Amino acid sequence: MRYVVVTVADGEAGVFNKKLSAEAFEKFKVKSSKLPAHITLKAPFETEEPIEVLEEAIEKYIKDKPHGSTTHGGNGIPTPEPVPHDEHL
Predict the structure, then answer these.
(1) CA-CA 20 to 30 A from 6: which of 17, 54, 79, 89?
(2) Mean pLDDT on 8-14
(3) In whole angstroms, how large is the CA radius of gyration of the chain?
(4) In 3-17, which positions are buried (b, 16+ CB within 10 angstroms) versus exposed (e)?
(5) Whole-prediction pTM value?
(6) Residues 6+ apart with CB under 8 A from 87
(7) Once rounded to an integer, what is the mean pLDDT over residues 47-69?
(8) Are 36 and 14 in contact (CB under 8 A)?
(9) What are phi and psi of 67, to 5 degrees?
């Protein structure tokens, strides 16, 4: 099977992406993507392992990792205070 691992931008970032996509579609008459706003963590790859093996590996990896937020400025979205990351992925 072919897989890709992504993190989906939701909340304000997702809403911003939908509005921006709609404006681009309207202004430039381009196709709108059916994919939600996301960041690719692992480019497409192939494996014969069942999806559950991948899901379990990801769950195991993130279980004890600190969670934080990533912020970007200059796009009109209010940026919350960033949470420091103790580890780099």
Answers:
(1) 79
(2) 85
(3) 17
(4) eeeeeebeeebeeeb
(5) 0.56
(6) 65, 66
(7) 86
(8) yes
(9) -100, 145
